[in-house]
Amino acid sequence: MSSQDNKTNGRGGEDPLLEVRDLKTYFDTDNGTVRAVDGVSFEVRRGECVGVVGESGSGKSVCQISILGLIPSPPGRIAGGEIIFDGDNLVEASEADLRKIRGNRISMIWQDPMSSLNPFLKISKQLFEPLQLHKGMNEEQAREAAVEMLQKVGIPGAAKRIDQYPHQFSGGMRQRVMIAMALLCQPELLIADEPTTALDVTIQAQILELIRDLRRDFGTSVIVITHDLGVVAGMADRIIVMYSGRVMETAQATDVFHRPAHPYTVGLLKSVPRLDRGRTERLIPIEGNPPDPSQERKGCPFAPRCGWATSKCHNEMPELREVDDEHLAACWRAEEVFGAELGSRASARRVAAIEKRAESEEITDDVLAEVAEGA
Fold this sequence. Notes:
alpha/beta
């Protein structure tokens, strides 16, 4: 059943393009079952850009690879949940149906373009394939469409360069080729996995601007996976913060940056360098390491590293709950964190002072007033 005839329930008058419901992706290893994705739910609306952020190992990429049905089995498996794309559950889809969707209706920009492009094949061969497979084009039609897309992503001399090999392109140009390949069939959903990794800052800015422009031109929904909140600051409409295979917080991008409601999000924000703070203000690192995903967890997975944690945090797993309009957080003290306004505008001194008080008492309006006076 398709949702083309049933788009009346979601915001903006239509259903979401993608709904992930309680997704669980596990890997069975000799050391136990690794819960890489452990009950994740989110949605992507049509034309929307969603940023998925978190440290390495938080489950960001595994979650998105699950959407494409690319989990290697064994050892991986989808242990539960649903992935509803345009009304169809991809978890129950056959491999043949998934092949019709991959690269056509859902495309992915992989993290490392050099390992994603076949070094033994010319760029032309790799660009023609999805057009011939999904759109039924002959070689002449595919060449014309591929050259046009290379021009759109900023490859100079595209008509000649299309017949070159990947090693003849710079890192930034290879990434542009990957973006062109992902957009050739004008997908409804584009997943960009760390699209600026290993690129210098100038090329990073160009790639992010390119994705923004193409999203506007094609009306494509975009998921951007990154460990750097700075990458999605000017791109994402909404942000999903993941940790240890779970969603810790989700909200509109401006809300996440201005008033985070989870201590982990605060930690990520305080780890981002800021040019407007000068050299005197030091970054605040998140102490400790992420938990072993193969070990059973009793309470909040972030509790061992969290300055706000109480005994309840160590013993009971919090569920996502709303702390403001469309702003959800999985934290027992989410309202306190939200009220403290520890977003990107808060000074490191203020964050440290409030976190010190949070170790032993509730953060009330009186405590915030005292901290403000002492700042």
